[in-house]
Design a protein that fits this description.
The complex is a heterodimer of chains A (about 190) and B (about 180). By secondary structure, chain A is an alpha+beta fold. Chain A has helices spanning about 5-25, 55-65, 175-180, and strands at about 35-40, 45, 75-80, 95-100, 105-115, 130, 140-145, 155, 165-170, 185-190. In chain B, a hairpin with a 6-residue loop joins strand 4 (about 90-100) and strand 5 (about 105-110). The chains are: A alpha+beta (about 190), B alpha+beta (about 180). The interface between A and B is large, with 64 and 56 residues.
Chain lengths: ~190, ~180
């Protein structure tokens, strides 16, 4: 084999290696593809988060978007980056989470995160709504920058950016994979503009 | 021939870069988190109580504002670690994350009465010690993070919970050096 071929092959190996590393990094970032993923309306999760059976993709993905997340035996996390119509969530819009949460968990919460996966600097510290929040039994949670005038449970937004929501169920009644795939999760509807 | 060799080299390089990075991401992120947390706690095998989560909480992604966390970065090189904590009147759990981000075990509030006592040990340490029936978590790796979570939907409760639960919790060697 010619020396020039060896050099070219080596260069191709290195360049492609860097491209492969970049692909792995980008692919495991927010919104990345997750094997064993479950999708219910706008909400997605994986049955293997945090467990020793987690595959390399899921483990890498979770370490970037949910480090120190608990396995299914303790909690179930569902995240939404889009609404029920498939449109990206935007802080300049208003949304409603419609429907009651599944029964069984010791407690649940829904929290909004900025595009960097951290809590946003919202003026009123209404980062989340939980099962302990007054009014949640009515089955309507408002997700918006403006405080709802009717006193509905409120997840506060701020700025002009995309965001995501995470729905947490803690100490659920040992939901199986099949039950996780078929939970009756609430709708996530854009109401304005 | 030359083109085929280059294409094969590129394909192998892409696969190697992809899978190497994929497998290193959790370990590197966890290692960085452990080092930073141990630095903030003043060392390994010591609790740190980072307080309520808000927009300034940027060390671990997607923190829950409804949970109060305490973290103890564990190093089992010199022996098992013992954790104790008073039990609150609400959801509480102690989860252990190994160096690869896996969770081998979780101790739950319902397992304890007034005070939780948990020993974290490697399998070899557990096989060569009698822990007198104390709740034990076996770690597949010599380092990891023990993380307690406590449900705190009313943020005004935090000062009381910090004083009565968090600051009374302990994390340290099971057999301290004389």
């Amino acid at each position: 084999m010619r020396l020039s071929t060896v050099i070219a092959a080596g260069a191709a190996f290195v360049v492609a290696g860097v491209a492969g590393a970049a692909t792995a990094w980008i692919g495991t970032g927010p919104g990345g593809w997750v094997p064993n993923a479950i999708r219910i309306n706008a909400w997605t999760t994986s049955t293997v988060i945090g467990s020793q059976s987690a595959d390399a993709w899921t483990r890498a993905y979770v370490s970037r978007i949910g480090l120190l997340g608990l396995p299914r035996s303790e909690s179930a996390y569902y995240s939404a980056y889009v609404d029920d119509s498939g449109q990206p969530l935007e802080t300049t819009a208003s949304y409603e989470i419609r429907g009651v949460m599944p029964e069984g968990p010791q407690w649940w919460s829904v929290t909004a995160y900025g595009p960097d996966s951290f809590l946003m600097d919202v003026p009123n510290d209404h980062f989340s709504v939980s099962s302990a929040t007054e009014g949640v039994d009515d089955g309507r949670i408002v997700v918006s920058a403006e405080r709802p005038s009717d006193g509905a449970p409120w997840v506060e937004l701020t700025g002009d950016q995309t965001f995501s929501l995470t729905l947490r169920f803690y100490r659920h009644p040992n939901w199986t994979d099949e039950e996780l795939r078929n939970l009756d999760l609430p709708q996530l509807v854009r109401v304005s503009p | 021939m030359r083109v085929i060799v280059i294409i094969i080299a590129a394909a192998v390089g892409f696969g190697a870069g992809y899978f190497f990075t994929l497998n290193q991401i959790p370990r590197l992120i966890m290692a960085g988190t452990m080092e930073r947390t141990a630095g903030l706690a003043g060392g390994w095998n010591q609790f740190i109580h980072p307080g309520l989560r808000d927009e300034t909480s940027t060390r671990v992604v997607r923190p829950s504002p409804d949970l109060v966390y305490s973290a103890c970065v564990i190093d089992l090189s010199d022996g098992p670690i013992r954790i104790t904590s008073p039990m609150p009147d609400r959801y509480w759990s102690l989860s252990f994350f190994d160096a690869n981000t896996d969770v081998p075990d979780i101790a739950q509030r319902e397992e304890f009465d007034d005070v939780a006592e948990v020993i974290i040990a490697t399998r070899a340490q557990a096989e060569s010690n009698d822990f007198d029936g104390v709740r034990t978590i076996i770690s597949p790796t010599s380092r990891g993070v023990a993380l307690t979570r406590m449900f705190t939907p009313d943020r005004s409760e935090y000062p009381r919970l910090r004083e009565t639960i968090q600051t009374a919790a302990t994390c340290g060697p099971l057999n301290p050096a004389p």
